């Protein structure tokens, strides 16, 4: 009797796995069909989009829940912004000397607009094509009201959400002082719901264990108990 029950259980598990695989295939086929429609749409409106790979288009499509029209309009807006804001194609270190000189970026975080683009482009270059997303550790120990440039924060958030969709995996905020929360309450409404889900305030007593949930110990900076030395982003 026990043997027959186990066999039946195995059959049920096989059916569950088969159904799950079938659903995944159907979902992928649906996404690919919408991706083809999106490519046709954006190329009709902006021929330069022919140079863009499917991975980038797919991020914009997913950012709008596979709505072809919304994803296409979002991507076309990105192309227009890129040409006007970054006419040379990239942000040079010579354009942001003050931020570079402070050595405050170690492949994570951003503040002002030009620096935000510089950092996000650098991160995107480093990420393998099949991985796509990055984890950000934002250590704001010592933050004070002198740092509370709301327009800069909202501008950086807008760049991340509107022009680099589906890139952020998690944002881990460390050592947040109490006064930071006052400004955070004002910035919070400008963050879209998908991004809000990715933001984690890390308790000091759970710092390393929380980081380990997202990052392998070999890739955690030494200052947080890992093995990786910090290298300023402009030196990578």
UniProtKB/TrEMBL annotation:
Coiled coil: none annotated. Residues 117-232 form the CRAL-TRIO domain. Gene3D superfamilies: CRAL-TRIO lipid binding domain (3.40.525.10). Residues 1-27 are annotated as: Disordered. InterPro entries: CRAL-TRIO_dom, CRAL-TRIO_dom_sf, CRAL/TRIO_N_dom, CRAL/TRIO_N_dom_sf. SMART domains: CRAL_TRIO_N (SM01100), SEC14 (SM00516). Residues 8-27 have a biased composition (Basic and acidic residues). This is CRAL-TRIO domain-containing protein.
